Amino acid sequence: MTWIAPPGPVADGLRIGLLGGSFDPAHDGHLYVSEVARRALKLDYVWWLVSPGNPLKPQPEALPPRLAQARHIARAPYIRVTGIERALGTRYTIDTVTALQRRFPHVAFVWLMGSDNLEQFSRWRRWRQVAARIPIAVVRRPGSVLAPLHAPLARRLGISRHLGPAPSLAILDGHRNWDSSTRRREQTLGAAAGAMLNSIL
Question: Is 116 in contact with 138 (CB distance < 8 Å)?
């Protein structure tokens, strides 16, 4: 494997959360998931894996501006924003997790996601193998707080508030944050449409 620099410290025994996604754009909801997980799971760091593209979503903005915007909003010192998937040449979560575990075998990785993503987790490529490789922590988000009750992953693994070694699924809760990338994009489009209308009038 080609040597790839880690986005942050990777000393033996560190617990690092992996929060993947398009981050198109990054927002306070990502910070919320990171902080709830960090506190509950006693994580040393959280890596924001800004993906080159999400196979389940429309093509996002180019990677460099998404990385720059994510670094701007990631104010917490324990967060490391990275485009390491491009360097790894991975597109799917199973390939990214496998590559990171091989590259950094002494780090205890945990996969993080909001409950809105849990609803579609069974659509991810080889999702059962993802769950078998890495423990998963899900932070409840507004609009999808009941997702753990019917998600295939939850039915397969059961629900716990304590995370063990893979396969393991923990559901975490905190003060709810409504921010989302979809909402941000809708606001941006709405503002642009309003400005266009005003210029016409």
Answer: no
Structural domain range at position 89: 15-200
**CATH, residue 94:** 3.40.50.620
What CA–CA distance (Å, rounded) separates 93 from 53?
12
Beta-carbon contacts of 103 under 8 Å, excluding residues fewer than 6 positions away, are 1, 4, 6, 88
Strand 45-50 with 79-82, pairing: parallel
What are the pLDDT digits (tens) for 12-49? 999 999 999 999 999 999 999 999 999 999 999 999 99
In a domain, 68, yes or no: yes
With a threshold of 0.90, does the pTM exceed it?
A: no
Question: What stretches of 44-201 adopt beta strand conformation (E)?
Answer: 45-50, 79-82, 108-114, 136-139, 169-172
- Number of structural domains in the chain: 1
The amino acid present at 14, given as its one-letter code, is L
pLDDT tens for each residue of 147-199: 677 889 999 999 888 899 999 999 998 665 454 444 543 444 444 444 444 44
Q: Is residue 5 part of a domain?
A: no
Side-chain half-sphere of 99: how many Cα atoms within 13 Å?
20
